[in-house]
Amino acid sequence: MASTGPDHPTRDAGFGIYLHWPFCAAKCPYCDFNSHVRHAGVDEPRFLAAFRAEIAHNATRTPGRTVTSIFLGGGTPSLMQPATVAGLLDAVAAHWTVAPDAEVTLEANPSSVEAGRFHGYRAAGVNRVSLGVQALDDASLRTLGRLHDAAQALEAIELAQSAFARTSFDLIYARPGQTPALWRAELGAALARAAEHLSLYQLTIEPGTPFHGLAAAGKLVTPDDEVGRALYDVTQDLCAKAGMPAYEISNHARPGAESRHNLLYWRYGEYAGIGPGAHGRLVTPSARIGTVTERSPEAWLARVERAGHGVVETETLTAADQADEFLVMGLRLREGIDPERYAALKGRALNGNRIGMLIGDGLLERLPGGRIAATARGAPVLNALVAELAA
Ligand SMILES: C[S@@+](CC[C@H](N)C(=O)[O-])C[C@H]1O[C@@H](n2cnc3c(N)ncnc32)[C@H](O)[C@@H]1O
Ligand code: SF4
Fold first, then answer.
1. Would the CB of 76 count as within 6 Å of ligand 2?
2. What is the distance in A from the centroid of ligand 1 to the CA of 21?
3. Strand-strand pairing, 15-21 and 66-74
Protein backbone atom coordinates (compact mmCIF):
# COMPACT_ATOMS: atom_id res chain seq x y z
CA MET A 1 0.00 0.00 0.00
CA ALA A 2 1.23 3.51 -0.82
CA SER A 3 2.65 5.55 2.07
CA THR A 4 0.51 8.31 3.55
CA GLY A 5 3.23 9.77 5.80
CA PRO A 6 4.38 13.39 5.87
CA ASP A 7 6.33 13.02 2.62
CA HIS A 8 3.35 11.63 0.81
CA PRO A 9 2.78 13.26 -2.61
CA THR A 10 -0.67 14.53 -1.63
CA ARG A 11 1.10 17.07 0.55
CA ASP A 12 2.92 18.72 -2.36
CA ALA A 13 0.02 20.93 -3.39
CA GLY A 14 -0.18 22.88 -0.10
CA PHE A 15 -2.64 23.01 2.77
CA GLY A 16 -5.94 24.85 2.35
CA ILE A 17 -8.83 25.81 4.59
CA TYR A 18 -12.38 25.87 3.22
CA LEU A 19 -14.94 27.72 5.35
CA HIS A 20 -18.57 27.31 4.29
CA TRP A 21 -21.08 30.10 5.02
CA PRO A 22 -24.44 28.45 4.24
CA PHE A 23 -26.77 31.46 3.98
CA CYS A 24 -28.13 33.45 1.05
CA ALA A 25 -30.52 36.37 0.68
CA ALA A 26 -32.62 34.28 -1.75
CA LYS A 27 -32.31 30.79 -3.18
CA CYS A 28 -31.55 30.78 -6.90
CA PRO A 29 -33.75 28.27 -8.76
CA TYR A 30 -30.80 26.49 -10.45
CA CYS A 31 -28.61 26.11 -7.35
CA ASP A 32 -28.13 22.94 -5.32
CA PHE A 33 -25.33 24.25 -3.12
CA ASN A 34 -25.81 23.94 0.64
CA SER A 35 -27.35 27.40 0.95
CA HIS A 36 -30.36 28.51 2.96
CA VAL A 37 -32.46 31.61 3.44
CA ARG A 38 -33.13 32.68 7.03
CA HIS A 39 -35.59 35.57 7.03
CA ALA A 40 -35.39 35.83 10.81
CA GLY A 41 -31.66 36.58 10.54
CA VAL A 42 -28.53 34.66 11.43
CA ASP A 43 -26.84 34.78 14.82
CA GLU A 44 -23.35 35.53 13.47
CA PRO A 45 -21.53 35.60 16.83
CA ARG A 46 -22.94 32.19 17.70
CA PHE A 47 -21.96 30.74 14.31
CA LEU A 48 -18.53 32.35 14.64
CA ALA A 49 -17.99 30.64 18.00
CA ALA A 50 -18.92 27.30 16.42
CA PHE A 51 -16.57 27.92 13.48
CA ARG A 52 -13.81 28.68 15.97
CA ALA A 53 -14.42 25.37 17.71
CA GLU A 54 -14.38 23.44 14.45
CA ILE A 55 -11.22 25.25 13.33
CA ALA A 56 -9.54 24.20 16.62
CA HIS A 57 -10.74 20.62 16.10
CA ASN A 58 -9.24 20.48 12.60
CA ALA A 59 -5.98 21.97 13.88
CA THR A 60 -5.53 19.10 16.36
CA ARG A 61 -5.68 16.69 13.41
CA THR A 62 -3.20 18.63 11.28
CA PRO A 63 -0.45 19.99 13.53
CA GLY A 64 2.50 21.83 12.02
CA ARG A 65 0.90 22.63 8.66
CA THR A 66 1.45 25.92 6.87
CA VAL A 67 -1.78 27.26 5.38
CA THR A 68 -1.28 28.24 1.73
CA SER A 69 -4.87 29.23 0.94
CA ILE A 70 -8.16 30.00 2.64
CA PHE A 71 -11.48 30.04 0.80
CA LEU A 72 -14.65 31.53 2.29
CA GLY A 73 -17.35 29.96 0.13
CA GLY A 74 -21.06 29.52 0.25
CA GLY A 75 -23.80 30.28 0.21
CA THR A 76 -23.03 33.94 0.28
CA PRO A 77 -20.09 34.81 2.53
CA SER A 78 -20.48 38.49 1.62
CA LEU A 79 -23.58 38.50 3.85
CA MET A 80 -21.19 38.21 6.81
CA GLN A 81 -20.18 41.27 8.76
CA PRO A 82 -16.48 42.07 8.22
CA ALA A 83 -15.95 41.46 11.96
CA THR A 84 -17.17 37.87 11.52
CA VAL A 85 -14.76 37.34 8.62
CA ALA A 86 -11.97 38.82 10.75
CA GLY A 87 -12.90 36.43 13.58
CA LEU A 88 -12.70 33.44 11.23
CA LEU A 89 -9.34 34.45 9.77
CA ASP A 90 -7.91 35.24 13.21
CA ALA A 91 -8.95 31.80 14.42
CA VAL A 92 -7.16 30.15 11.47
CA ALA A 93 -4.01 32.18 12.20
CA ALA A 94 -4.19 31.25 15.90
CA HIS A 95 -3.99 27.53 15.09
CA TRP A 96 -1.72 27.19 12.08
CA THR A 97 1.11 29.15 10.50
CA VAL A 98 -0.37 31.08 7.59
CA ALA A 99 2.10 31.56 4.70
CA PRO A 100 2.85 35.27 4.15
CA ASP A 101 1.63 34.97 0.56
CA ALA A 102 -1.44 32.85 1.37
CA GLU A 103 -4.38 33.42 -0.97
CA VAL A 104 -7.51 34.37 0.99
CA THR A 105 -10.64 34.38 -1.21
CA LEU A 106 -14.16 35.46 -0.30
CA GLU A 107 -17.16 34.67 -2.52
CA ALA A 108 -19.41 37.67 -2.91
CA ASN A 109 -22.82 38.24 -4.42
CA PRO A 110 -23.26 41.52 -6.35
CA SER A 111 -26.46 42.26 -4.46
CA SER A 112 -24.84 42.04 -1.04
CA VAL A 113 -21.69 44.11 -1.39
CA GLU A 114 -20.91 47.74 -0.91
CA ALA A 115 -17.63 49.58 -0.70
CA GLY A 116 -17.51 49.70 3.09
CA ARG A 117 -17.82 45.94 3.38
CA PHE A 118 -15.14 45.26 0.79
CA HIS A 119 -12.71 47.50 2.65
CA GLY A 120 -13.68 45.76 5.90
CA TYR A 121 -12.99 42.36 4.34
CA ARG A 122 -9.64 43.56 3.09
CA ALA A 123 -8.74 44.85 6.55
CA ALA A 124 -9.77 41.43 7.93
CA GLY A 125 -7.18 39.73 5.68
CA VAL A 126 -9.13 38.82 2.54
CA ASN A 127 -6.95 39.42 -0.54
CA ARG A 128 -9.08 38.01 -3.36
CA VAL A 129 -12.78 38.28 -4.21
CA SER A 130 -14.84 36.02 -6.44
CA LEU A 131 -18.14 37.58 -7.55
CA GLY A 132 -21.22 35.64 -8.66
CA VAL A 133 -22.21 37.75 -11.66
CA GLN A 134 -23.83 34.87 -13.65
CA ALA A 135 -25.00 36.96 -16.63
CA LEU A 136 -24.59 40.42 -18.07
CA ASP A 137 -28.14 40.87 -19.35
CA ASP A 138 -31.18 41.70 -17.27
CA ALA A 139 -33.60 39.20 -18.81
CA SER A 140 -31.22 36.30 -18.08
CA LEU A 141 -30.60 37.54 -14.55
CA ARG A 142 -34.35 37.55 -13.97
CA THR A 143 -34.68 34.01 -15.35
CA LEU A 144 -31.85 32.93 -13.05
CA GLY A 145 -33.74 34.46 -10.11
CA ARG A 146 -30.91 36.83 -9.26
CA LEU A 147 -31.47 39.80 -6.99
CA HIS A 148 -29.17 42.06 -9.01
CA ASP A 149 -29.32 43.49 -12.52
CA ALA A 150 -26.48 43.81 -15.02
CA ALA A 151 -25.68 47.41 -14.02
CA GLN A 152 -25.32 46.39 -10.37
CA ALA A 153 -23.11 43.48 -11.40
CA LEU A 154 -20.81 45.80 -13.36
CA GLU A 155 -20.71 48.18 -10.41
CA ALA A 156 -19.79 45.33 -8.08
CA ILE A 157 -16.99 44.26 -10.44
CA GLU A 158 -15.58 47.78 -10.38
CA LEU A 159 -15.90 47.99 -6.64
CA ALA A 160 -14.15 44.65 -6.17
CA GLN A 161 -11.36 45.66 -8.53
CA SER A 162 -10.82 48.94 -6.71
CA ALA A 163 -10.55 47.17 -3.34
CA PHE A 164 -8.62 44.00 -4.28
CA ALA A 165 -5.62 43.33 -6.48
CA ARG A 166 -6.99 39.87 -7.24
CA THR A 167 -10.57 39.38 -8.42
CA SER A 168 -12.61 36.89 -10.37
CA PHE A 169 -16.21 36.64 -11.43
CA ASP A 170 -18.52 33.77 -12.37
CA LEU A 171 -20.81 33.56 -15.38
CA ILE A 172 -23.24 30.79 -16.24
CA TYR A 173 -23.66 29.99 -19.93
CA ALA A 174 -25.79 27.57 -21.97
CA ARG A 175 -28.77 29.41 -20.56
CA PRO A 176 -32.26 29.09 -22.13
CA GLY A 177 -32.28 30.72 -25.57
CA GLN A 178 -28.57 31.50 -25.58
CA THR A 179 -26.99 31.26 -29.03
CA PRO A 180 -23.24 31.16 -29.75
CA ALA A 181 -23.50 34.70 -31.19
CA LEU A 182 -25.19 36.07 -28.06
CA TRP A 183 -22.66 34.33 -25.81
CA ARG A 184 -19.76 35.61 -27.90
CA ALA A 185 -20.94 39.19 -27.37
CA GLU A 186 -21.59 38.72 -23.64
CA LEU A 187 -18.31 36.93 -23.01
CA GLY A 188 -16.46 39.60 -24.98
CA ALA A 189 -17.93 42.24 -22.66
CA ALA A 190 -16.98 40.14 -19.64
CA LEU A 191 -13.41 39.67 -20.85
CA ALA A 192 -13.09 43.41 -21.35
CA ARG A 193 -13.83 43.85 -17.65
CA ALA A 194 -12.10 40.82 -16.17
CA ALA A 195 -8.89 41.58 -14.34
CA GLU A 196 -7.17 38.20 -14.21
CA HIS A 197 -9.60 35.33 -13.64
CA LEU A 198 -13.04 34.14 -14.79
CA SER A 199 -15.10 31.07 -13.86
CA LEU A 200 -17.44 30.12 -16.73
CA TYR A 201 -19.89 27.35 -15.89
CA GLN A 202 -22.28 25.59 -18.25
CA LEU A 203 -25.74 25.66 -16.69
CA THR A 204 -26.39 22.29 -15.08
CA ILE A 205 -29.97 21.28 -14.33
CA GLU A 206 -29.57 19.87 -10.82
CA PRO A 207 -32.07 17.32 -9.50
CA GLY A 208 -34.32 18.74 -6.80
CA THR A 209 -34.05 22.36 -7.95
CA PRO A 210 -36.98 24.40 -9.35
CA PHE A 211 -35.14 24.46 -12.70
CA HIS A 212 -35.25 20.67 -12.72
CA GLY A 213 -39.03 20.68 -12.33
CA LEU A 214 -39.43 23.34 -15.01
CA ALA A 215 -37.14 21.49 -17.42
CA ALA A 216 -39.00 18.20 -16.81
CA ALA A 217 -42.30 19.99 -17.57
CA GLY A 218 -40.85 21.42 -20.78
CA LYS A 219 -41.08 24.98 -19.44
CA LEU A 220 -37.36 25.56 -19.38
CA VAL A 221 -35.43 24.57 -22.48
CA THR A 222 -31.65 24.71 -22.42
CA PRO A 223 -29.41 24.51 -25.50
CA ASP A 224 -29.02 20.97 -26.86
CA ASP A 225 -25.65 19.15 -26.86
CA GLU A 226 -24.62 20.50 -30.24
CA VAL A 227 -25.27 24.13 -29.27
CA GLY A 228 -23.71 23.41 -25.85
CA ARG A 229 -20.57 22.24 -27.59
CA ALA A 230 -20.53 25.36 -29.81
CA LEU A 231 -20.90 27.55 -26.71
CA TYR A 232 -18.02 25.70 -25.06
CA ASP A 233 -15.87 26.23 -28.17
CA VAL A 234 -16.70 29.97 -28.20
CA THR A 235 -15.62 30.08 -24.55
CA GLN A 236 -12.27 28.43 -25.20
CA ASP A 237 -11.60 30.50 -28.29
CA LEU A 238 -12.43 33.93 -26.88
CA CYS A 239 -10.70 33.38 -23.54
CA ALA A 240 -7.52 32.08 -25.16
CA LYS A 241 -7.43 35.06 -27.54
CA ALA A 242 -7.90 37.42 -24.58
CA GLY A 243 -4.88 35.91 -22.79
CA MET A 244 -7.02 34.06 -20.26
CA PRO A 245 -6.89 30.44 -21.37
CA ALA A 246 -8.64 27.65 -19.49
CA TYR A 247 -6.44 26.14 -16.80
CA GLU A 248 -9.34 23.91 -15.74
CA ILE A 249 -12.59 22.88 -17.47
CA SER A 250 -14.50 25.97 -16.23
CA ASN A 251 -11.74 28.26 -14.99
CA HIS A 252 -9.74 30.77 -16.99
CA ALA A 253 -6.87 32.96 -15.87
CA ARG A 254 -3.94 34.99 -17.01
CA PRO A 255 -0.85 32.81 -16.51
CA GLY A 256 0.12 33.07 -12.84
CA ALA A 257 -3.34 34.31 -11.75
CA GLU A 258 -4.91 30.88 -11.29
CA SER A 259 -6.80 30.36 -8.03
CA ARG A 260 -4.31 28.66 -5.74
CA HIS A 261 -7.07 27.25 -3.59
CA ASN A 262 -8.85 25.65 -6.52
CA LEU A 263 -5.56 24.32 -7.86
CA LEU A 264 -5.06 22.67 -4.49
CA TYR A 265 -8.24 20.64 -4.96
CA TRP A 266 -7.40 19.62 -8.49
CA ARG A 267 -3.79 18.81 -7.64
CA TYR A 268 -5.19 16.64 -4.89
CA GLY A 269 -3.68 18.54 -1.99
CA GLU A 270 -4.72 18.56 1.64
CA TYR A 271 -7.54 20.78 2.94
CA ALA A 272 -9.76 21.14 5.96
CA GLY A 273 -13.50 21.56 5.28
CA ILE A 274 -15.14 23.64 8.01
CA GLY A 275 -18.75 24.76 8.44
CA PRO A 276 -22.08 23.14 7.51
CA GLY A 277 -21.83 20.51 4.76
CA ALA A 278 -18.11 21.09 4.12
CA HIS A 279 -15.87 18.35 2.73
CA GLY A 280 -12.23 17.94 3.75
CA ARG A 281 -9.27 15.76 2.79
CA LEU A 282 -6.73 15.40 5.57
CA VAL A 283 -3.49 13.44 5.72
CA THR A 284 -3.04 11.73 9.09
CA PRO A 285 0.09 9.71 10.02
CA SER A 286 -1.71 6.50 9.08
CA ALA A 287 -4.07 7.48 6.25
CA ARG A 288 -5.61 10.09 3.97
CA ILE A 289 -9.11 10.70 5.22
CA GLY A 290 -12.22 12.31 3.79
CA THR A 291 -14.43 14.28 6.18
CA VAL A 292 -17.99 15.55 5.77
CA THR A 293 -19.80 17.79 8.24
CA GLU A 294 -23.51 17.99 9.08
CA ARG A 295 -25.30 19.79 6.25
CA SER A 296 -28.12 21.62 8.01
CA PRO A 297 -26.80 24.90 9.49
CA GLU A 298 -28.75 24.64 12.73
CA ALA A 299 -28.03 20.93 13.22
CA TRP A 300 -24.34 21.63 12.53
CA LEU A 301 -24.39 24.44 15.10
CA ALA A 302 -25.99 22.20 17.73
CA ARG A 303 -23.55 19.39 17.03
CA VAL A 304 -20.49 21.65 17.26
CA GLU A 305 -21.79 23.19 20.49
CA ARG A 306 -22.24 19.67 21.87
CA ALA A 307 -19.24 17.81 20.47
CA GLY A 308 -16.71 20.48 19.43
CA HIS A 309 -17.04 19.63 15.72
CA GLY A 310 -19.73 18.92 13.14
CA VAL A 311 -18.09 15.97 11.37
CA VAL A 312 -20.64 13.26 10.61
CA GLU A 313 -18.59 11.12 8.24
CA THR A 314 -14.92 10.18 8.29
CA GLU A 315 -13.76 7.89 5.55
CA THR A 316 -10.33 6.34 5.29
CA LEU A 317 -9.39 6.45 1.65
CA THR A 318 -7.65 3.38 0.31
CA ALA A 319 -4.69 3.81 -2.01
CA ALA A 320 -6.97 2.89 -4.94
CA ASP A 321 -9.59 5.48 -3.86
CA GLN A 322 -6.89 8.12 -3.70
CA ALA A 323 -5.50 7.23 -7.10
CA ASP A 324 -8.96 7.45 -8.64
CA GLU A 325 -9.75 10.79 -6.98
CA PHE A 326 -6.36 12.11 -8.07
CA LEU A 327 -7.12 11.10 -11.67
CA VAL A 328 -10.64 12.59 -11.68
CA MET A 329 -9.46 15.88 -10.22
CA GLY A 330 -6.16 16.17 -12.09
CA LEU A 331 -7.52 15.56 -15.58
CA ARG A 332 -9.72 18.62 -15.16
CA LEU A 333 -6.52 20.65 -15.33
CA ARG A 334 -4.82 21.80 -18.50
CA GLU A 335 -1.51 20.82 -16.87
CA GLY A 336 -2.90 17.27 -16.52
CA ILE A 337 -1.42 14.68 -14.19
CA ASP A 338 1.93 13.14 -13.44
CA PRO A 339 1.41 9.44 -14.24
CA GLU A 340 4.15 8.54 -11.75
CA ARG A 341 2.19 10.11 -8.91
CA TYR A 342 -0.80 8.04 -9.98
CA ALA A 343 1.37 4.91 -9.99
CA ALA A 344 2.76 5.76 -6.52
CA LEU A 345 -0.79 6.06 -5.15
CA LYS A 346 -2.33 3.13 -6.98
CA GLY A 347 0.61 0.76 -6.65
CA ARG A 348 0.57 0.17 -10.41
CA ALA A 349 1.02 2.30 -13.50
CA LEU A 350 -1.74 3.45 -15.86
CA ASN A 351 -2.21 1.14 -18.82
CA GLY A 352 0.16 2.34 -21.55
CA ASN A 353 -1.92 0.77 -24.34
CA ARG A 354 -5.03 2.62 -23.25
CA ILE A 355 -3.12 5.90 -23.03
CA GLY A 356 -1.77 5.29 -26.53
CA MET A 357 -5.25 4.57 -27.83
CA LEU A 358 -6.74 7.73 -26.27
CA ILE A 359 -3.86 9.78 -27.66
CA GLY A 360 -4.54 8.21 -31.05
CA ASP A 361 -8.20 9.22 -30.74
CA GLY A 362 -7.14 12.82 -30.06
CA LEU A 363 -8.68 12.83 -26.57
CA LEU A 364 -5.49 12.76 -24.52
CA GLU A 365 -2.03 14.22 -25.03
CA ARG A 366 1.37 13.71 -23.52
CA LEU A 367 2.93 16.99 -22.40
CA PRO A 368 6.65 17.76 -22.26
CA GLY A 369 8.02 16.15 -19.09
CA GLY A 370 5.70 13.15 -19.40
CA ARG A 371 2.48 14.53 -17.89
CA ILE A 372 -0.76 13.48 -19.55
CA ALA A 373 -3.68 15.83 -20.13
CA ALA A 374 -7.09 15.92 -21.78
CA THR A 375 -7.06 17.68 -25.16
CA ALA A 376 -9.66 20.27 -26.19
CA ARG A 377 -11.62 17.35 -27.67
CA GLY A 378 -11.18 15.21 -24.57
CA ALA A 379 -12.12 17.83 -21.97
CA PRO A 380 -15.88 17.87 -22.77
CA VAL A 381 -16.01 14.05 -22.41
CA LEU A 382 -13.87 13.86 -19.30
CA ASN A 383 -15.98 11.32 -17.42
CA ALA A 384 -15.68 8.80 -20.22
CA LEU A 385 -11.96 9.48 -20.43
CA VAL A 386 -11.42 8.89 -16.72
CA ALA A 387 -13.51 5.72 -16.79
CA GLU A 388 -11.44 4.39 -19.69
CA LEU A 389 -8.12 5.22 -18.02
CA ALA A 390 -9.05 3.94 -14.57
CA ALA A 391 -10.50 0.64 -15.86
C1 LIG B 1 -21.63 29.03 -4.37
S2 LIG B 1 -21.91 29.98 -5.74
C3 LIG B 1 -21.01 31.40 -5.19
C4 LIG B 1 -21.40 32.80 -5.38
C5 LIG B 1 -22.60 33.45 -4.73
N6 LIG B 1 -23.35 32.58 -3.90
C7 LIG B 1 -23.44 33.96 -5.85
O8 LIG B 1 -24.27 33.20 -6.35
O9 LIG B 1 -23.26 35.11 -6.23
C10 LIG B 1 -20.73 29.39 -6.90
C11 LIG B 1 -21.04 29.48 -8.36
O12 LIG B 1 -21.53 28.26 -8.85
C13 LIG B 1 -22.21 28.50 -10.06
N14 LIG B 1 -23.40 27.64 -10.11
C15 LIG B 1 -24.24 27.36 -9.10
N16 LIG B 1 -25.21 26.51 -9.52
C17 LIG B 1 -24.97 26.25 -10.84
C18 LIG B 1 -25.61 25.44 -11.85
N19 LIG B 1 -26.70 24.74 -11.58
N20 LIG B 1 -25.07 25.42 -13.08
C21 LIG B 1 -23.95 26.13 -13.36
N22 LIG B 1 -23.31 26.90 -12.46
C23 LIG B 1 -23.81 26.96 -11.22
C24 LIG B 1 -22.56 29.98 -10.10
O25 LIG B 1 -21.82 30.60 -11.12
C26 LIG B 1 -22.10 30.47 -8.74
O27 LIG B 1 -21.57 31.76 -8.79
S1 SF4 C 1 -26.08 30.65 -6.64
FE2 SF4 C 1 -25.15 31.67 -4.91
S3 SF4 C 1 -26.70 33.17 -4.20
FE4 SF4 C 1 -27.76 31.70 -5.49
S5 SF4 C 1 -28.56 30.20 -4.03
FE6 SF4 C 1 -26.60 29.40 -4.85
S7 SF4 C 1 -25.12 30.01 -3.37
FE8 SF4 C 1 -26.94 31.28 -3.00
1. yes
2. 14
3. parallel
Expressed in angstroms and rounded, the spacing between residue 211 Cα and the centre of ligand 2 is 13
Contact by Cβ (8 Å): 390, 329: no
Measured in Å, residue 24 CA sits from the centre of ligand 2 at 6
Alpha-carbon distance of 192 to 76, in angstroms, equals 26
Q: Where are the alpha helices (DSSP H) in 281-361?
A: 297-307, 319-330, 339-346, 352-360
Contact 235, 187 (CB under 8 A): yes
DSSP for 252-271?
Answer: EE-TT-S-HHHHHHHTT-EE
List the domains of the chain with CATH numbers: 11-265 (3.20.20.70), 319-391 (1.10.10.920)
Ligand closest to CA 111 = 1
- Taking the centre of ligand 1 as the mean of its atom positions, its distance from the CA of residue 132, in whole angstroms, is 7
Report residue 89 CA to chain centroid gap.
19
- Taking the CA of residue 145 as reference, the ligand 2 atom at the shortest distance is 4
Q: How many CA atoms lie within 13 A of 383 on its CB side?
A: 0
How would you write the pLDDT of the chain (391 residues) with one tens digit per residue? 333 333 344 446 799 999 999 999 999 999 999 999 999 999 999 999 999 999 999 999 999 999 999 999 999 999 999 999 999 999 999 999 999 999 999 999 998 777 779 999 999 999 999 999 999 999 999 999 999 999 999 999 999 999 999 999 999 999 999 999 999 999 999 999 999 999 999 999 999 999 999 999 999 999 999 999 999 999 999 999 999 999 999 999 999 999 999 999 999 999 999 999 999 999 988 889 999 999 999 999 999 999 999 999 999 999 989 999 999 999 999 999 999 999 998 999 999 999 999 999 999 999 999 999 999 889 989 999 999 998 8
Measured from CB, residues less than 6 Å from any atom of ligand 1 are 30-31, 33, 74, 76, 107, 109, 132, 134, 170, 172, 201, 203-204, 206
